[in-house]
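User: quick one, fold this
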Amino acid sequence: MGKINRRDFFRSSVAGLGGFLVLPALDHRAEEGKGEKSKGQKKFLYRNLGKTGVKLPVITMGVMNSDNPNLIRAALEAGMYHLDTAHGYMRGKNEEVIGSVIKGRPRDSFFIATKIYLPRDESSGLPRETATEQFFLSRLDTSLKRLGLDHVDILYHHNVWTRDFAFYEPALKGLEKAKKDGKVRFAGITTHRNEPEVIEAAVESKFYEVIQIAYNHRQKHGPKIREALAKAGRAGLGVVAMKTLGGGQRNLEKAEARAALKWVLQDPNVNTIIAGFTTFDQLELDLSVMEDLTLKPAEKSLLERMKMTAGLYCQGCEQCLQSCRQNLPIPDLMRGYMYVYGYRNLIEAQDLLASLNLPSTLCQDCGSCRVKCASGFDVPARIRDVVRLREVPPEFLSA
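Assistant:
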């Protein structure tokens, strides 16, 4: 990943991009529109992040799967000034790499989001005893140290899938204190499944200012998500979309990836996508999408054909849970499988497995499996495959 430096990238791609746009300062307030263009430059679309007063390019960088400082630097210099990370990504290295890139840059030239995951029972979603306000704030302090910052722009209460956990008091108090202390500008919440319930909880809370959601063309409950996002838009919440390729399949053909990104941005309530690109070619594709969001008829047809395949994206519908004899957290296990085969991120998959408190033996003693996946996944085969990571020493996977 790190073999191409920034100079090589610009030499090979500036001609194709027509030059990079320097977008307006982060606190400028504006309606959705295009950045001003000088001769030879292309226009990149941007939208307001809810009522935060911040506007962002419609595609920015989700850094989770990249530890390449040259790629992060190229994204920033191309105008993608929003970088999204988390306390746990790459066991902390992700934040450290970002910190090395932004060191010495003007603080108003980048917009950083990170996330804190509170320990919980992955089957019930209920918090563990260690899920305290103190735990939350200590993680934030560590993240700030890694990033080399005195504050982040967004801090997310991470990976919430129930209304009750969205209102979990230690998380709310932690966010409130962090804002009061000047360590956080905006309070956020993220969700990988059961999105409509979490979005509506965020709206009801009148506390959260930004919500990050899984949103893509594969979701069978897409109409319910769109309805909830309309409520979020009316309430002034900033909306950040992730999982927009429907499973992290960055091995998609360019036409497929371009169509998937455009599909999400047809929803005016989505303010920005955090795209998890890991190569300079993927960055260039994402930059090109920002010039024209028109979803052409051929692209719509392509997305319909893609939906007919099982892919890697788990809908999180939870229909599988009641039929599993071992009461396994199947949606999380399917997400781990996606991390391996979609993201090629073995560290994140292994860390997810470690957090699930799984039995020593899975999907071997049940005889005929009763689980029927709504997406057509061979659930027991995927589980047996991904849990092999538990046997790999963590240092073998370290970046």
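User: anything notable?
Assistant: The radius of gyration is 20 Å.
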